[in-house]
Write a structure and sequence with these properties.
binds alpha-D-galactopyranose; 6-stranded antiparallel beta sheet; Immunoglobulin-like; about 25% helix; about 375 residues; 8-stranded parallel beta sheet
């Protein structure tokens, strides 16, 4: 199975943590359809940690907690599939999951079989309690094989947070995406630390295996497992989402879709940002750090159909600016062309030839454009 574009969907962890159950998961599937998120491309509904009993059964199988999932996991899968969506679950390469539930170390094949029987289309595979003296590549590879051996198409979502330089070997394990960072929290400094930590590793992602910089916090509004009241608002959500799109990360929504504000839904459905994220050429952006302002980055990315994306990001806690020198993106004074840029949020246009541009940006704000090549007289 080839995954050609960063996967998009919803995951339970950021908001619900261990407060998951059948109703919550099925409600989210309903909302993904009702809110038009499915039509926008969000497809996977993923149950994270804390879904099972603490003990395996007498056949060594992991068992879904019958109080949380009274009709069993197959029923959840069937419901999600009936909505035209895909079903994801979670396990871990270590001896226990991060929340202390049974995990798949040395039980990769039997667990893969269980997931296939559940009707799973996507497996997130964590790294807690993985023995220090074991070879992580080998064990991720083992689960990659175990999933394939089931004969079911299952997206393999590795999550070892970039440990042991996983960007260098994770593709070889059969993984389709790999978490490269620690856990996100609903704070702008988390968004900044996670995104900037990958600026020098963007080249490892490509069709087939994408760099996952963690689930989205957009629209959490201070509520939930990793929520922090008052630390993020619309500006932070906008810049976070735009960065994830420019950087080609999978887009897994982490908020409670029953209460998310319309402004956030509009952001998550922004067709231009999604086009940048899902572009078929899957090129990583060139990242230019401003020599003049702190934590101000310009990103330039080739898109298909002879288009480009340009982003200015002020990741600083103070007001500042974004800037673009033609030279930095390869434009020479006499090259004879420039760009017509269209702002992905406002639709305003900007003609750019060989001028230096400086745009004021409030703290944590960004501007993103899609550009067309235009010739110059
Ligand atoms: C780790 C992962 C998180 C989440 C939790 C669940 O911390 O990085 O994304 O899956 O485990 O316990």
């Amino acid at each position: 199975m080839i995954i050609n574009k960063p996967p998009m969907g919803w995951n339970s962890w950021n908001t619900f943590g261990d407060q998951i159950n059948e109703k919550v998961i099925c409600d989210m599937a309903d909302k993904i359809v009702e809110l038009g998120l499915k039509d926008a491309g969000y497809e996977y509904v993923v149950i994270d940690d804390c879904w099972s009993l603490r003990q395996r059964d007498e056949n060594d199988r992991i068992v879904a907690d019958p109080e949380l999932f009274p009709n069993g996991m197959r029923a959840v899968a069937d419901y999600i599939h009936s909505k035209g969506l895909k079903f994801g679950m979670y396990s871990c390469a270590g001896t226990l999951t991060c929340a202390g539930f049974p995990a798949s170390f040395e039980r990769e094949f039997i667990d893969a079989e269980t997931f296939a029987e559940f009707g799973v289309d996507y497996l997130k595979y964590d790294f807690c309690m993985f023995p220090d003296n074991k070879d992580a590549q080998l064990y991720y590879h083992r689960m990659g094989m175990a999933l394939k051996a089931t004969g079911r198409d299952i997206v393999f979502s590795a999550c070892n947070w970039g440990n042991r330089e996983s960007e260098k070997w994770i593709r070889s394990t059969g993984a389709h995406l790999y978490r490269s960072t620690g856990d996100i929290g609903e704070r702008f400094n988390s968004v900044r630390a996670i995104s900037t930590s990958q600026f020098d590793k963007l080249q490892y992602a490509a069709p087939g295996c994408f760099n996952d910089i963690d689930m989205l916090i957009c629209g959490m509004d201070g509520v939930g497992n990793v929520g922090h009241p008052g630390l993020c608002g619309d500006t932070e959500y906008k810049t976070h989402f735009a960065l994830w799109c420019m950087m080609g990360s999978p887009l897994m929504i982490g908020s409670d879709l029953r209460r998310v504000r319309p402004e956030t839904i509009e952001l998550l459905k922004n067709p231009h940002l999604l086009r940048i994220n899902q572009d078929e050429e899957c090129r990583n952006p060139i990242v230019i750090e401003s020599p003049r302002s702190t934590a101000s980055y310009t990103m330039f990315k080739h898109l298909s159909n002879n288009q480009v994306a340009l982003g200015f990001f002020n990741l600083n806690d103070d007001d500042g600016s974004g800037e673009l020198c033609p030279h930095d993106i390869g434009l020479t004074i006499n090259c004879g062309f420039g760009f017509k840029f269209t702002d992905v949020f406002t639709g305003e246009t900007l003609d750019f030839y060989n001028d230096y541009i400086k745009v004021p940006l409030k703290a944590h704000d960004c501007k993103v454009y899609i550009g067309e090549y235009v010739t110059r007289d």
